[in-house]
Amino acid sequence: MSTPKRIFVKGNEAISRGALAAGMKCFFGYPITPQNDIPEFLSSALVEAGGEFVQAESEVAAANMLMGAAACGIRAMTSSSSPGMSLKQEAISYMAGSEIPGVIVNVSRGGPGLGDIGPSQGDYFQAVKGGGHGDYKLLVLAPGTVQEAYDLTMKAFDLAFKYRNPVLVLADAIIGQMKEPVVPRVPENRDPEEGQDWGLQGAKGRDPRLIKSLFLDDGALADQNLKLQAKYKAMQAEVDQELFLTEDAELIVVAFGSIGRIAKSTIRKLRAQGHKVGLVRPITLFPFPSEVLLDLAKQGKRFLTIEHNMGQMVEDVRLAIRTVADSAFHAQLPGNLPTPDDFEEPILKALEG
Amino acid sequence: MTQEIRVTNYPEVLTDRPTHYCPGCHHGTAHRLVAEAITDLGLVDNTILIGSIGCSVFIYNYLTLDAIESPHGRAPAVATGVKRARPDKIVFTYQGDGDLASIGMAEIMHCANRGENITTIFVNNTVYGMTGGQMAPTTLVGQKTTTCPGGRCRENEGMPIRMTEIIASLGGVAFAERVAVNNVKNIMKAKKAVAKAFEYQTKEIGFSFVEILATCPTNWRMTPLQANKRIETEMIPYFPLGNYKDVLAKEEK
Amino acid sequence: MPSRVEFREDRCKGCLLCTEVCPTGIIQQSSRFNQKGYKVTEIAPDRMNECKGCAFCAMMCPDYAINVFTTKQAKGGRK
User: Fold this and answer.
1) From residue B248, how far is each of A111, A151, A309, B208, B243 by CA, in Å?
2) Helices and strands (DSSP H and E) totals, chain B
């Protein structure tokens, strides 16, 4: 098979194209910056592909539409940016509770409140700690390049159906608004029967199917929670991260998404000057690459976590390595567009120890 | 030679189990009307039920249909997702007045306005039943509830919302009717309206809506007979019965 | 033709909505309680023969607790 021709697109378009390649049939959107290119692109591209596009009356409604469509066992998606994500949490909790494989994209921006429309990683906690009410987890994928935005959106659908769990793609304004070349891959062998054995379709010739998150019978909710927790444990198999020059590194920088990619440039520059710095860029934020970090910690390496927020993922890094090491932290303040130079000083400072 | 025949035939889609509803509550009757409509139209195998939050959350225990439970007020949005994913299926929501006319006002308005080809059965009993009788958007002026113990006051809480009139005014709506199930005559009319709502969905001509005025004897602090009487004496005068929109009827004229 | 009403006493919640719609007024509250503690309805003693088989009671019952039967000449009966 020949390699598909490269295209030069924005991250938001790459996300949209990745979803189309994955076989998405329904998309439900609502305008909010900086994710607007996604509903705008899909309003024609998805319809041309024979799918359904709905501009919902609110993010609340868009997420609930996603819940309905995905409950039919078909591939469906919604996208938003940070303030809109807060509104979607209700439906996301219900989807997690009733095991519905919706895909959600957050092209995040600064907060809290209205914040700004620039990039930020302030939604990390919301993404990986549940976000809505109740004990649940989403699989969270964090692209660091436009190509990854394409690939991970495509993968999000596979994972959602594999685990019957909502999957969140956590990008930011940098990834969403940046143009890069992308190889538009196509998925390998998709199961044509996917979703057929549990999705809503009318109870013809079989017992009715019920998709719900209310469990009132004695012990029923306990059982459901145990079932969900077992699933979250199984998801540990999906851990993914980029390791860059970690082997001989004295200092490991931990950073995700666009910040991980910017930190990589800084590390390249510092390496050229002889500094032994490496990078761990978590690609799955849940499950988190705790074991990888712990292994590196056991080798005596030191850690610096850099985030585009006031310190969120650093808590997970510290939790992962707590028995042998600690992590320093550098906050890239939201409201600023970071450059590789911004990270030089904090890395050098951490190297000094 | 004579033969005994059964006059009452409950549709098979209605499960043979006792409901959890209070004595005299009209939900059971409303469920039966839905069951009869989809049975008579031959739609049982093809129908997907969108439940909502309130006493009727357990409707999926009484109708043997593929079903999903939606968050409070969001049934029309969930139904939109289901219908877009499965346009060949019959999709309906079953919602109470707190669910539909308060927390879910945005979802029902836009679902209807888009002309989603779904049916909504709206059970209006002027009170939040499951949570214990709080004031609803349809609570009548002067009606006492646990959150307006002195009676709903126009100055503070506004007037009760007449949903069928509002829904009928929206462009995407094919059928909107308000019915009651407080006597045999009204039940017959209600049965026709529910059947028509589902029939219109099969014709794919837009959103169909039936509001059923219903009792909540427990939270009205009334006996079932008193509550049933209240439908006639207090509810119907404020919520007039009748058809408010029927796009096919207009075409016939 | 005589008709017959059957109350599923385990389903009856004693709401009495059926008593109001019976055109012959033969339904009444009994003195019996069912397992759930509801005082069930019944046809007044010796008045079953007044039933017209209209099934209004069943139509009104929110609990599907009433079945109505009527008898008629069977089609094959004259052979």
Assistant:
1) 51, 49, 58, 12, 12
2) 11, 10
* pTM across the whole model: 0.96
Give the closest residue to B54 by CA, choosing from B106, B1, B97. B97
| pLDDT tens digits, A31-46 | 999 999 999 999 999 9
Residues written for chain A? 353
Please give the Cα distance from A267 to A323 (Å, whole number). 27
Best B5, B34, B61, B186 member to test C by mutation, with max C CBs in 10 Å, is: B5
Residues B131-184 have pLDDT tens digits of: 999 999 999 999 999 999 999 999 999 999 999 999 999 999 999 999 999 999
Residue C17, number of CB atoms within 10 A of its CB: 27
The CATH code of domain C3-70 reads 3.30.70.20
- Between CA A48 and CA A118 the distance in angstroms is 31
Q: How confident is the model at residue C79 (pLDDT cuts 50, 70, 90)?
A: very low
Residues of B with a Cβ under 8 Å from any C Cβ are: 1-8, 10, 14, 18-19, 21-29, 32, 183-184, 187, 217, 223-225, 228
Identity of residue C77: G
Contacts of B78 in chain A (CB under 8 A): 64-65, 67-68, 71
Looking up tokens 């409509």 gives: B37
ipTM above 0.90, yes or no: yes
Q: Is B96 helix (H, G, I), strand (E, B) or coil?
A: strand
* B250 residue type, one letter: K
Whether the CB of C66 is below 8 Å from some CB of chain B: the reply is yes
Query: What whole-number distance in Å separates Cα of residue A145 and Cα of residue A149?
Result: 6
What domains lie within chain A, and their CATH numbers? 7-199+227-237 (3.40.50.970), 241-352 (3.40.50.920)
- Helices A290-298 and A313-321 meet at what angle, rounded to 10? 50
On whether the CB atoms of residues C64 and C12 are closer than 8 A, the answer is no
A244-292 confidence digits (pLDDT tens): 999 999 999 999 999 999 999 999 999 999 999 999 999 999 999 999 9
Of B44, B81, B89, the CB nearest to A201: B89
Using CB atoms, pick whichever of B10, B24, B187 lies closest to residue C64.
B10
When CB atoms are compared, the residue of A67, A203, A207 closest to B81 is: A67
How many residues make up chain B in this entry? 253
**Domain residue ranges of chain B, discontinuous segments joined by +:** 27-128+161-252
Distance CA A149, CA A171 (A): 8
Over the stretch A57-101, which tens digit does the pLDDT of each residue have? 999 999 999 999 999 999 999 999 999 999 999 999 999 999 999
Cis omega (within 30 of 0) for bond into A187: no
Cis peptide bond upstream of A112, omega within 30? yes
* Strand runs labelled E in C2-79: 3-7, 27-33, 39-43, 66-73
- Which among A61, A203, A208 has CB closest to B77? A61
- C-alpha atoms less than 13 angstroms from C-alpha of B234 in its C-beta half-sphere: 17
Contact check, Cβ <8 Å, B4/C69: yes
Instruction: Count CB pairs under 8 A between chains A and B.
Output: 136
The CATH number of the domain covering residues in B27-128+161-252: 3.40.50.970
Using alpha carbons, select from B30, B6, B69, B2 the residue that is nearest to residue B191: B30
What radius of gyration, in Å, describes the C-alpha atoms of chain B? 18
Contact residues on chain B for A213, CB-CB shorter than 8 A: 69
Looking at residue B130, what DSSP letter applies? T
- Kindly list the domain boundaries of chain C, sorted by start residue: 3-70
